Amino acid sequence: MENTRRKFIKTNIAMVASAAAVGSTAAAMPGMQAFASQTAEYAKDGGMKFCLAHFFGIDPTRIALSKQMQVLGAVGGINPQSVGLPNVKNWEYEAVVAVRDFWAKQGITYRVIEGPPSLYEKTKLGLDGKDEEIETFIKFIQNLAKAGIDTVCYNWMPVISWARTKLDKPSRGGALVSSFDYEDVKDKPLTKYGDFTHEAMWKNLEYFLEAVVPEAEKVGVKLALHPDDPPVDKIQGIPRIMTSANAFKRLIEIVPSPSNGITLCQGTFATMGEDIPSVIRYFGSRKKIHFVHFRDVRGNKNNFEETFHDDGKTDMYEAMKTYYEVGFRGPMRPDHVPTVAGDSNQNAGYSNYGALFAIGYMRGLVESIAKSQRV
């Protein structure tokens, strides 16, 4: 595997050098510049495609930091308003292309749609109108494929999605992190949707997968299901079913397909109590890891807090080494970084300065692993 990787890099760099030697005209071509940039990115991160999340509008500082760190991938939703299209629906081709092109002009590739449109309560709870939602979702992934975006991160957490009970818990050196304590939510009343069973949630997921996965496979789009975060049994009558590695093993067998895979959110699998390298090895060897959230925690599913990447309970070196060894070369982003001194906690978990530490840590891991395997 390592010999193949080195051969790929060596060949591509030689191609870029050869093109540059032909003359300044060829070397100045935008396509060749983009190719050279992507080749450099490939070599830098061991082939993995490091990204930053952009969930809270267009932040010039975050964009500048991405380019300065040479993190040339972006993850986020489709927000037509942010690119001057207030009257276009977020699943339509015009919106998808406009967002893609905005990032391309920044020199950044929009790699993953996280939080896709038209996948809401009706589909996840099996309510009237689910077929219309699913039909729109299929149109959306077809439009993504036309625009050259091939990965969708989605979740199966209706009504109550990502949940924390505190967003500003003091951590190392006074940095702020998010935390969760089940005691604070266990007695909350049912939502307006009432009480559901785990069997019903699985039935709804199967219905969705049977309709969507074949269509995704036709156009080459990868569906990457994110685990329930936190992975507790139920919150306010809404079951959480994606709460273990076994649940994900069941998922990929419902509709076997290259398009039916997972978002391996390390922090969530760690709160489940799973052995992270074993999870990576199982799903990575089957080519089912389509996207990675690289983060860590301290505690368990009922009571945990997020941490700096070097301060949690997971052996992060061993985790990164396992991704490398199983051949994962897809998109990966730091997730839920601490808010550090000088930064804002307005969007908890996504501070710009915290991302600097995370990317540096991740890149250091990859470089040390790649070098050790070349010895």
Give a written overview of the molecule.
α1 runs antiparallel to α3 (30-44), α5 runs parallel beside α7 and α12 packs across α13. The strands form three sheets. This protein has an eight-stranded parallel beta barrel with strand order 1-2-3-4-7-10-11-14, surrounded by six helices. Strands 5-6-13-12 form a four-stranded antiparallel β-sheet, covered by helices on one side. A hairpin with a 2-residue loop joins β8 and β9 (238-239). It has helices spanning 2-22, 24-27, 30-44, 60-69, 93-105, 121-124, 130-147, 198-219, 245-254, 266-272, 276-285, 316-326, 352-374, and strands spanning 49-53, 73-76, 109-114, 151-155, 166-170, 176-181, 222-226, 234-235, 238-239, 260-265, 289-294, 297-300, 303-306, 331-334. The chain has two domains: 1-44; 47-374, Divalent-metal-dependent TIM barrel enzymes (TIM Barrel), CATH 3.20.20.150. The longest helix is centred in the C-terminal third of the chain and has 23 residues, at 352-374. With 375 residues, the protein is an alpha/beta fold. Mean pLDDT is 90; it is low at 1-39.
